[in-house]
Write a structure and sequence with these properties.
This protein has eleven helices and five strands; from the N terminus they run ααααααβαβαβαβαβα. By secondary structure, it is α/β, with parallel strands linked by helices. β3, α9 and β4 form a beta-alpha-beta unit. α3 packs across α5. The radius of gyration is 19 Å and the shape is globular. The two termini are 21 Å apart.
């Protein structure tokens, strides 16, 4: 059984915690889109559409179907002036018994596809699409706890990776060695492009991913990677560390990361606490 098939379905109604996560995620994404360069914001919107829409056919055996008019209504809701309109539609679906996995893999996936089509046809502006994809991403973030790892590991395991395009990988190699000495099993991923790295992490049986950056120039690759992983591996806990991380912490804090570590010792302490709490 895959991770996507192992969604927890006992809880039907959105909880206050979920609504709070949605509000914070939506606000952070909105703020991030105001800070980042426009071409990067466009790339992030495309990343959301690509990753979410790809889920539409990932579970072909699911019999749940969606009505095109309902999907269009969801698209128009997430791009409207009402920042919670789309989230309310999802809440209403859950209230009448639609399973979270059907919402995630059918409703939102179909809406992402339609959003992309409307963008290509110039039926929606760039501004509308970035707002809509941000809210769709926030909805998915609020449903993150409904996923569980597909293969819970018995030993302390994690993936360490340098963000795509990062040439300075000595730090992540040293961090991997440090963690191994502390008893961790570390799978090290370096020199991979964006899609390769996402695919590798998706197949891994670990729930902790440590990402290494080396300054402000890493922000573009990191932001794309975080968006892709949050959609593809919603159960994963993402940790970012690296040299000069304090300088870009105001931007990192808007990405919804689980941990921003100033040093390898800080990362080790927080990862151990994270592991022990699971």
């Amino acid at each position: 059984m895959s991770g996507e098939e192992r969604l927890l379905t006992e809880c039907v109604l959105p909880t206050p915690a979920e609504r709070d996560i949605y509000r914070r995620s939506e606000a952070n994404i909105r703020r991030l889109s105001e800070i980042l360069p426009e071409d990067l914001v466009i790339d992030l919107a495309r990343e959301v559409i690509l990753r979410v829409a790809s889920k539409e056919n990932s579970l072909s055996h699911i019999s749940y179907t969606v009505d095109e008019e309902d999907i269009k209504a969801l698209c128009l809701a997430v791009v409207s002036d009402d920042e919670t309109a789309g989230a309310r539609i999802i809440s209403d679906l859950r209230a009448v018994g639609v399973r979270p996995e059907d919402i995630y893999l059918r409703q939102l996936a179909a809406a992402a596809r339609m959003l992309g089509e409307m963008w290509v046809k110039d039926e929606l502006t760039f501004s509308q699409v970035t707002v809509g994809t941000g809210r769709m991403f926030a909805i998915m973030r609020s449903m993150r706890h409904l996923f569980e790892p597909s293969m819970p590991a018995q030993d302390k395991t994690a993936i360490f990776a340098a963000v795509p395009g990062e040439d300075h990988t000595l730090g992540v190699h040293m961090a991997a060695d440090f963690f191994r000495k502390e008893g961790w099993q570390i799978a090290l991923k370096v020199g991979m492009d964006h899609d390769q790295l996402v695919a590798e992490i998706k197949q891994a049986p670990t729930g902790i991913v440590g990402l290494s950056i080396s300054g402000e120039h890493s922000i573009e690759a990191l932001s794309r990677l975080v968006v892709a992983l949050r959609i593809t591996c919603p159960h994963a806990k993402l940790i970012v560390s690296g040299s000069n991380v304090e300088e870009v912490e105001p931007i990192l804090s808007l990405m919804g990361l689980d941990v921003i570590a100033a040093s390898v010792e800080d990362a080790q302490e927080q990862m151990t606490a994270m592991w022990n709490s699971d």
